[in-house]
Write a structure and sequence with these properties.
This is PD-(D/E)XK nuclease superfamily protein. The chain is α+β, with helices and mostly antiparallel strands. The protein folds into two domains: 89 residues, no CATH class; 72 residues, no CATH class. The chain has eight helices and four strands, in the order ββαββααααααα. Strands 1-2-3-4 form a four-stranded mixed beta sheet. The longest helix has 16 residues. The chain is flat, with a radius of gyration of 24 Å. It starts with a strand and ends in a 17-residue tail after the last helix. It binds iron/sulfur cluster. The site of iron/sulfur cluster has 8 residues, from helix 4.
Length: 216
């Protein structure tokens, strides 16, 4: 929250800082809700923006981080969605007022954009496979849903013809309880392992070690 002066009065400018490299839809919702809460609490909010990492920025060195964050003014959008937020609140309040919890099963909505904190509770009666299907890298959620409907929850029961090479490898090695490794690791990865600081670049939550590097 940044204090500013307008017509002799103090107003506020809010900047929500995210560690991503672009504005996501859920960021827009987040900013909209925050603007609504601040205004409803009587804060004279003049503007609201979302700042994220500028992935084209190059660290010049000397602890100069000017330009690392890219600011996006979302004031007009956030302020125009007040009725939408009121609708969300009314919906949430009517659900909270129900005598029992809604009968909604777990699914994609539990992990998008982040894993819901109630997942263990909501999935308490669901089968607990030893090797969950979601261990498969980039396995289509549609295929996973179709398998779930058929009662397939464990990797061992996933038909091989639904898997690509990498997924098949994950399945095979997982079920065999073996570690997969290859000597065909690209040279740069080996170099990273041997000289980690030299190849380090900025992570969203950290700082670059060397000048001339871009955030990744
Ligand atoms: S885990 Fe969260 S999102 Fe999924 S059904 Fe339960 S409350 Fe809803």
């Amino acid at each position: 929250m940044l204090p500013e002066q307008k017509d002799g009065k103090q107003v506020w400018r809010m900047i929500e800082v995210k560690s991503s490299t672009s504005v996501k839809d859920y960021h827009r919702d987040d900013v909209t809700v925050q603007a609504f809460v601040a205004q409803s609490a009587g804060v004279p909010l003049e503007a609201i923006a979302l700042a994220h990492i500028d992935s084209s920025w190059i660290y010049p060195g000397n602890e100069d981080y000017q330009g690392l964050l890219k600011e996006n003014d979302l004031t007009a959008e956030a302020f125009s969605r007040t009725d939408e937020v009121k609708g969300w609140i009314a919906q949430a309040q009517s659900i909270a007022a129900e005598p029992s919890e809604p009968a909604i099963g777990t699914g994609d909505h539990c992990g998008t954009p982040f894993e819901c904190g109630f997942y263990d509770y909501c999935s308490r009666d669901e089968p607990k496979p030893e090797h969950p299907i979601n261990w498969l890298p980039r396995f289509s959620s549609t295929k996973e849903k179709e398998l779930t409907i058929k009662g397939v929850y464990d990797l061992k029961d996933v038909p091989d013809n639904l898997l690509n090479d990498k997924q098949q490898r994950v399945k095979d090695y997982t079920l065999a309880n073996e570690v997969f490794s290859t000597l065909l690791v690209p040279q740069q990865i080996w170099l990273r392992m041997i000289f980690p600081p030299i190849f380090s670049t900025l992570k969203p939550s950290s700082s670059p070690y060397l000048s001339g590097k871009v955030p990744v």
